Amino acid sequence: MAPNDVPAETLRGGRLLAAGIVLALANFMVVLDTTIANVSVPHIAGSLGISASQGTWIITSYAVAEAICVPLTGWLAMRFGAVRTFAVAMLGFGLFSVLCGLSTTLTMLVACRVGQGLCGGPLMPLSQTLLLRIFPKEKHGQAMGIWAMTTVVAPVLGPILGGLISDNWSWNWIFFINIPVALFCAAGASIMLAKSETMRVKLGVDMVGLILLVLWIGALQLMLDLGREHDWFEDGFIVSLGIVAAIGFVIFLIWEMTEKEPIVNIRVFRHRGFTVAVASLAFAFGTFFASAVIIPQWLQTSMGYTATWAGYATAFTGVLAVVMSPVAAKLTEKYDPRAIVCFGIVSMGLACIPRALWTSEADFWTLALPQLMQGFGLPFFIVPVTIIALGAVDPEETASAAGVMNFLRTMAGAIATSISSTWWDNSARVARNDLASTLQPGETQSVLASMGMGFEQARSTIERLVDQESATLATTQLFAVSTAIFIVAALIIWFSPRPPANVDTSAAH
Q1: Burial (0-12, 13-18, 19+ Cβ within 10 Å), 111
Q2: How many CB atoms lie within 10 A of CB 254?
Q3: C-alpha span between 459 and 442 (Å, rounded)
Q4: Are 31 and 155 in contact (CB under 8 A)?
């Protein structure tokens, strides 16, 4: 019997309900923090005196730290116990939330977001594991339904909550609201789940693999985040980061392939179905996540939207995602999951076409409806791609394969956000130069002067319009490229073999 397979006390009645709320609330809070800052980036950037592109580091640093910590979750649970690890991680998450809210510099905020991500990484898989331990076996479906609902609903509420808080209080409170939740969940888990604790086993840890993982991922993310400001590979520091990332990655692969108990089980990539499914997942999810970061920035910096209304516009993604999730699960049971994945990703790609036609005069519903369309395709993509990936590996590899899949999904989102933010900013500059070179300001200034504007007022108005149009052009170009990436991701999935029936996806997180 494996250490974490020790029979746990299944709970009943009110105690089961209370424990379920604690675990679901913890998962909700961690997932919420992946999107709550999206609409707050302009507020944070303005408060700290940084650019909007630098503000995206607040999002990518959290995602990267969370991704790094996910592969350690199994080891932490077996070494210290699942309940104890959960409670300590909750307290750590709350502590770093306090520090994030108190941050006065970008460096401090990014460092605290890294701490938040490291503590938040184990909470999603542990909340799922503990729900399965406390619910009777015949109610495992209900347990996973609760977990899945919080995972789907949290990203919907994140932008809305982040916008309302940033506009009506201050951006600091998007972090402070985590504190009572963290204290409640940590205390609740310690009290109610004490008898559901797993056995503790003294295990070794692949320390070399962990160091290499942190090294190459950290170097890669720094290169992507700092590259634009340092003129990319014209700067020696960026070149050094690129070399460290490349060499570190190669050594990491070699080490993990030969290590008996690797921190990331690279061997699962020998299964073609897993490799193809994860590749499709990385391309599609990375593109989706990057758009969720770029759109709120564009709405606030160029379209005059408040954080609240930017949150309302982007949150429409989750409306049909919630509604269609059970439909997607049912269809996946009846039809080829590859066809369902292809349909879901193509639907997400088609939603980018109206985005590529946006103008600076687009109204709220013109902006919100493509979000609704993309949310329709999301569950048709997420659910079956998990089945394809986990159905391709050996049964004893399911847990490690799920960890690798979640790690790469999170990393894809962070890397795509960094690349897209840089590309978007550069495209806006190029578009601005092109517009400025063809503009005839004299005629426009005369028209504005006839409307009662002074010279400087007319000049600033023209400059604002040029900035607005250049940002809009960059945004539409980004979504034209996104459409192509989604189509590629949809086609990739057909290179995987059809998965077997009755795939166990409970290890996915």
Answers
A1: middle
A2: 12
A3: 10
A4: yes
Predicted confidence (pLDDT) per residue in 211-238, tens digit = 888 888 888 888 877 777 777 777 788 8
pLDDT of residue 9: 55
Contacts of 458 (CB under 8 A, 6+ apart): 444, 445, 448, 449
Longest dimension (CA), the chain: 85
State how far the alpha carbon of 74 is from the alpha carbons of 24, 35, 201, 271, 509, in Å.
19, 26, 11, 22, 12
pLDDT at 144: 65
SS3 392: coil
Contacts of 504 (CB under 8 A, 6+ apart): 390, 395, 398
E-strand ranges in 216-258 read none
C-alpha to C-alpha distances, 147 to 32, 131, 153, nearest whole angstrom: 13, 8, 10
Which secondary structure element, helix H or strand E, spans residue 410, and what is its range? helix 398-438
Q: What is the pLDDT of residue 62?
A: 85
Phi, psi of 295 (to 5 degrees): -60, -50
Contacts of 18 (CB under 8 A, 6+ apart): 188, 192
Residue with tokens 């490349």: 246
In SS3 terms, 157-217 reads as: HHHHHHHHHHHHCCCCHHHHCHHHHHHHHHHHHHHHCHHHCCCCCCCCCCHHHHHHHHHHH
The CB-based long-range contact list for 461-470 (8 Å cut-off, 24+ gap) reads 466/432, 466/435, 466/436, 466/439, 467/302, 467/432, 468/302, 468/303, 468/360, 469/360, 469/431, 469/435, 470/428, 470/429, 470/431, 470/432, 470/435
Of 328-332, 370-374, 461-465, give the range with the top mean pLDDT: 370-374
CB-based contacts of 391: which residues, under 8 Å, 6+ apart?
A: 273, 337, 499, 500, 503
**How far is 391 from 398, CA to CA, in rounded Å?**
8
Q: Phi, psi (5° rounding) for residue 259?
A: -75, 140
List Cα–Cα distances, 187 to 21, 26, 31, 162, 372, in angstroms: 13, 12, 20, 26, 38
Beta strands in 32-129 (DSSP E): none
